[in-house]
Specification:
Elements: E1 38-40, E2 49-52, E3 63-64, E4 94-97, E5 107-112, E6 117-121, E7 138-139, E8 143-145, E9 151-152, E10 158-162, H1 183-186
Length: 222
């Protein structure tokens, strides 16, 4: 089966070729409830074949990503899956609201005990105290009880970090926002990314490096 497609571009009246490009075909990742329950030959890319680790051979048929960007079959949970996840541990100052209980497919919503903070995923062995400004953690909207009866993402990796203040790109360098998670205060802490070219720290006492230009993409740090 030929996987190549033809891309036709036209010569315009201006004497230039029209713009055109190829975008690789990828299929939607399966729902998080299947996390850890399947193996794929090439991720979610075109032609990749995924197999569920079920006991029944009929449920172990390969599911393929087609050129339309759709799977040949629906991902279905293995038959006879029972049980539930343990209640999510309330650690790292995070609490969970589990309105659907703890069964397979149940969703719990994390929130931080001390506001204003956001629940985020941090790598293993990293805590809010050892987190560096260039780290860009992902905010966690919810955790799901998978068919393996484990929470995904793992609650032990969910931590609370200080929320961003809503003053990004206002011309003042807010130290609290001077980190990758807050887009380095929308460029307010680097003269090269400010139209005025003058950094004005919002905090009067800016002894530490919190008011310096930290954005690794800014001209000063090239």
């Amino acid at each position: 089966m030929a996987l190549s497609k033809l891309l036709k571009i036209q010569c315009l009246e201006s004497g230039n070729w029209e713009q055109g490009s190829c975008i690789p075909v990828v299929c939607e990742p399966p729902s998080p409830v299947f996390e850890g329950m399947y193996v794929c030959t090439n991720g979610f890319k075109l032609g990749s074949q995924c197999v569920l680790n079920c006991k029944l051979a009929s449920q172990r048929m390969p599911i393929t990503c087609t050129k339309e960007g759709l799977w040949t079959e629906e991902f279905k949970l293995c038959d006879n899956l029972q049980g539930e996840c343990p209640p999510p541990p309330e650690k790292n100052l995070v609490e969970y609201k589990c309105e659907q209980g703890y069964g397979i497919g149940a969703v719990c919503r994390p929130s931080c005990i001390i506001p204003p903070s956001d629940p985020v995923i941090l790598p293993e062995n990293i805590t809010t105290d050892t987190m560096e400004h260039w780290m860009e953690p992902t905010k966690v909207q919810n955790i799901v009880c998978t068919g393996r009866r484990r929470w995904h993402p793992d609650p032990s990796l969910v931590h609370c970090i200080q929320s961003c203040e809503p003053f990004q790109a206002d011309g003042w360098c807010d130290t609290i926002n001077n980190r990758a998670y807050c887009q380095y205060d929308g460029g307010d802490c680097c003269s090269s990314t400010l139209s005025s070219k003058k950094v004005i720290p919002f905090a009067a006492d800016c002894e530490q490096d919190e008011c310096t230009c930290r954005d690794p993409k800014a001209e000063e740090n090239q």
